[in-house]
Specification:
The chain is of the alpha/beta class. 62% of the residues lie in helices and 7% in strands. The strands form 2 sheets. It has a 6-stranded parallel beta sheet, with helices on both faces. Strands 7-10-8-9 form a 4-stranded antiparallel beta sheet, with helices on one face. It is a multi-pass membrane protein.
Length: 610
């Protein structure tokens, strides 16, 4: 309908980001929304056909995007993260992947009706999950650390391995059906795979060394890194098609385990690029489908194949491969259920469909429909069920968003205790044991360590917590904590206490851009809050009802009382800030810092005497 390349590019990017935002608003899996959006504007309404309109650029654009996404995912594969999960992860990505290949291939042959050669090629490809689908689902589901780590590592590592298995199966087919292909060609295949791995390792070490030595300025680090990633992918892919994915994975893992500070500094930029690329590529792929392909999905053989892959092949391969590991049955069940296929399966299956058809295997015509059926079915099934299944298996964190409180003192200990009473997940963080000891005696969860330390990322599971209150005695440190977590948590959920007027006065002019939102008001400084608690003030909670309004509540409380925050009916705790707008509904619970009964009586006596 629209033939302008500019319009197509604009619509693809716009729909991708709109789908991400819409999925966030309505709490649906982003991949499902993107897939539906692409189908509507593509084969259903015929507005765009990216494959046709981008022409020869369509394949390279998708390939480069997949390379960057896979590299960004592999940068998160720090071996320190799986110190206690090394054995099950190794078993899943080796023995489990092999089982999934064999079982999936036999299912494709006997159920989908593919010939054995084609079945073993596509069976190898379909073991992939990948960061394009796994990482968004993990962000959505808020799993506990162990199953989340397993799914993430499996998705990223198996991605290139699945493609290599499919390539290996294809080379074996050529060896038997094409006389021109000899045993030397098989050796060249393994040589090309080894070359891709070594190339990724060398470039990863080289980039890490240049970053550490300062040979690349800060403003060029991200552009140079992405240029080298594309170079790494392209060189390996020129040597042998599809080995570029293995090369960029090796490069990313190498840099991740060099523990370079620059990589952490660029993490949020790379994540933003990854989100943009995932959104764009999913729209492009689904919008390029043909109506005939969509109708072919309803073939009973294809439906039967998808059902068996979901309910038999995946769970069986995980359960068998994890025998003898320390995974609980709940963890094995969850990992055995979650295996959504994504961009790699969609893109690479098109390549194998074409080369298999050229080789003379006519049954390869259904590979595109078979692939999309499996991708869309797994994305929908796992995207909508991961949260529910995780809760049933007790592998999801509490629905109530929690609070990290930084700084151990009389005020934060009291605040942590009252939040724990109202069932808000809370943890008190401090680098000094002495500041945490009184809180531990009161049963408040604590973490001894430096929140900004890289090691904390591997010791403290931050998934249950969506907000941070920085309340140490150093204003500049509070601002640094809030600024550090702004990209991952958002400034709306970052708070810091006010300090004395003359304390760190040089930061006053930066308050609107640096640090978190100021709690309460500027008069309620940390020193004042601590003084109140130490003089006998206590935390109290009061529920607002239809009969007892917020206006009545304000009339009855002491003038010296300080409103701390509100716990709404859904269990979300919102601290009061300097410019807070009063929106209190029946069912909300107000928390305040008030003088004790004795203190209140003394105050009334003084007022009467006056």
């Amino acid at each position: 309908m629209f033939n302008s390349l500019l319009f197509t590019a604009m619509l693809v990017v716009f729909l991708g980001i709109l789908s991400q935002w819409l999925s966030w608003r309505i709490r649906m899996p982003a991949i499902v929304v993107m897939s539906v959006a692409g189908i509507i504007v593509g084969p259903v309404l015929g507005f765009i056909n990216p494959e046709q309109e981008f022409g020869d650029l369509y394949g390279p654009i998708i390939s480069m995007a997949v390379a960057i996404i896979l590299f960004e995912g592999s940068l998160q594969l720090d071996f320190r993260e799986i110190r206690d999960l090394g054995r099950p992860v190794f078993r899943i990505v080796t023995f489990g992947a092999f089982l999934a290949w064999i079982l999936g291939s036999l299912t494709a042959h006997y159920i989908a009706g593919l010939s054995l050669p084609v079945a073993f090629v596509i069976g190898g490809l379909f073991i992939v999950t990948g960061p394009t689908v796994i990482l968004p689902l993990l962000r959505q589901a808020k799993l506990k650390p162990r199953p989340a780590k397993i799914l993430k590592w499996e998705g990223i590592i198996v991605d290139p391995f699945g493609v290599l298995i499919a390539l290996f199966a294809f080379q074996i087919i050529l060896f038997f059906v094409d006389e021109a292909v000899t045993f030397t060609n098989l050796l060249l295949f393994f040589g090309a795979a080894a070359f891709a791995t070594v190339l990724g390792w060398v470039l990863g070490r080289g980039m890490g060394w240049m970053f550490e030595k300062g040979y690349i300025p800060e403003f060029l680090k991200s552009p140079v890194l992405f240029a080298v990633v594309l170079f790494c992918f392209s060189i390996a892919d020129e040597v042998m098609h599809e080995t570029g994915l293995l090369s960029v994975t090796a490069m990313g893992m190498t840099m991740a385990n060099m523990h370079i500070s620059s990589i952490s500094d660029m993490r949020h930029f790379k994540e933003n690029i990854s989100v943009l690329l995932i959104s764009t590529i999913f729209i492009m792929l689904t919008a390029s489908l043909q109506v005939e392909t969509l109708l072919e999905i309803f073939n009973p053989r294809i439906i039967g194949y998808v059902v068996l892959m979901l309910l038999i092949v995946r769970p069986l391969s995980i359960w068998l491969s994890t025998i003898g590991t320390d995974l609980s049955w709940q963890e094995r069940t969850l990992v055995g259920w979650i295996a959504p296929r994504g961009i790699v399966a969609l893109t690479v299956s098109g390549y194998f469909a074409s080369v298999l058809l050229e080789t003379g295997f006519e049954d390869a015509e259904i590979l595109t429909a078979l692939t999309f059926a499996l991708v869309f079915s797994t994305v929908v099934a796992h995207g909508f069920s991961i949260g529910w299944v995780a809760k049933k298996l007790k592998l999801a964190n509490d629905d109530r968003p929690g609070m990290i409180i930084v700084g151990g003192n009389a005020f934060t200990r009291g605040l942590s205790a009252i939040l724990q009473e109202v069932k808000v997940p809370v943890i008190l963080v401090d680098s000094t044991w002495r500041n945490l000891a009184p809180a531990r005696q009161r049963g408040v969860p604590t973490f001894h360590g430096e929140l900004l330390s890289e090691q904390t990322e591997y010791k403290l599971d931050m998934t249950p917590y969506e907000a941070i209150i920085a309340a140490t005695s150093l204003d500049s440190y509070n601002a640094l904590v809030c600024s550090t977590f702004t990209p991952s948590i958002g400034r709306k959920h970052l708070f810091q206490v006010s300090m004395e007027k003359n304390h760190d006065a040089d930061l006053e002019g930066l308050r609107h851009t640096v640090g978190g939102r100021i709690l309460f008001d500027e008069k309620a400084t940390l020193q004042e809050l601590i003084r109140r608690v130490e003089s006998g003030h206590v935390f109290r909670r009061t529920q607002i009802t239809e009969q007892y309004s917020f206006e009545q509540y304000k009339e009855e409380i002491n003038g010296d009382d300080l409103l701390i925050g509100v716990l709404n009916k859904t269990g979300h705790f919102e601290p009061f800030v300097k410019d807070w707008e009063e929106v209190i509904n029946p069912g909300d619970t107000l928390i305040r810092l008030t003088s004790s009964t004795k203190e209140a009586e003394k105050a009334k006596q003084k007022q009467n005497e006056k």
